[in-house]
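Lab notes, practical 5.
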Amino acid sequence: MSASINSRVDVRLEALTAKPGLQAHSLLPDNGSGRTFYLETFGCQMNDHDSEKVAGVLVERGYRQVESPDAAGLVLYNTCSIREKAAHKVFSRLGLYRGAKEGKIIGVLGCVAQQEGEVIFDRAPWVSLVCGSASYQKLPDLIGRLEAGERRVTGLDKDTDETFETEMTRRDHPFRAYITIIEGCDKACTYCVVPFTRGPERSRASENVLTEARRLADSAYSEIQLLGQTVNSYRDPSPRRMSFSELLTAVAETPGIRRVRFTTSHPSDFGADIVQAMDAHPGICDHVHLPVQSGSTRILRAMKRTYTRDEYLERIQLIRGARRPISVTSDIIVGFPGETEQDFADTLSLLDAAQYDSIFSFKYSPRPNTAAQHMTGAIPEEEQGRRLAIVQDHQRRIQTTRNETMIGQTVEVLVDGQSRRDGQWAGRTSSNRMVNFTSLRPGLLGQYHLVQVTGAGPNSVVGHHLI
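Output from the prediction step:
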């Protein structure tokens, strides 16, 4: 039971196993152009997909991508500002170009660009380009102006539908593709900078989404991931008025599409209709990422998360009540201003109640333009670190136990990685679990195969290929 997927030779397969969150995007074949660019991405899947759009725009303009910033005439950093550490990394990178040779163009893209704006020119005067995610379709014009001799240019619009344009998007994965269906955020979480860097919520017309899904299927992509800062807040602006669950089902029913994922969901907009759609269509993956941020209702109110602990757990019960097992993952912030020991204990007890399959956990960091930046009751860095370590250790034990229940099961994986050692492969299940397995068969990349699970750890399971 396997389905061969047409692999693409113009993408480096090494990129498939690159560390998520910070990666240099894969190289294009040398097209003979003398104009070269280097693009490094910080952040989430939204940023990764934005970089695909940027690369497509540049290639269309005649640029070719190179592996090293030293070999590039145009150096771009697509940035994330949701955590303070990520923003610091960007300015650390920019510091490497102090005194760069004449003619090299340095650009900052994405959320840090939108957040800092022209202040970047003051902090790093050698930067020539500052461009937010909503202005990527203007890159040819902006770069043209730099090539014509302008010293500095900016593209800092926020409220624009141009961000959904995908005609020139370059796909960096040979069989998995992203589709952005909603941009921006209308929530007012006190810690979050996204409304300031990505702008208000704008949903994409359903027919445009389905047209892109059909085009991707025709190009042999078998897995699609629908993206949005709050993906399930989708509101179809077209006369069809499709709900998120209806759009999810329609994408899953696209001929040639075998798996559909979606991220990130907001608990307040997560309803029974989504679970019903997942139950009705096996092509919708067995995975929901549902960020909670804290297990304390008091802290959730301070964060303006628009739900209580009990209301969140009702969503978890809704998911657990599905006819098939659905993996649930989440985000946790520790050390939010004013978080008491009892609030922290509430978060630990929520981990036990929710039984997450994995979490992303972070120490709170104040971000510009957010209400929490000015709150009293800051938690010392050392104490934040202690709480984070406790959360991660607690969750690690939960994950190990949950993964061990899979031993003896047979699972289907989409093979997307190969070890340098012969016979060692990796892939993900519909529930987004990583599976490392052995097989002596060659050429498994991009195919769906059955694996029997023989062992488990906190972050993955192991098994052998069933031929």
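Observations recorded by the TA: The radius of gyration is 22 Å. The chain is about 30% helix and 20% strand.
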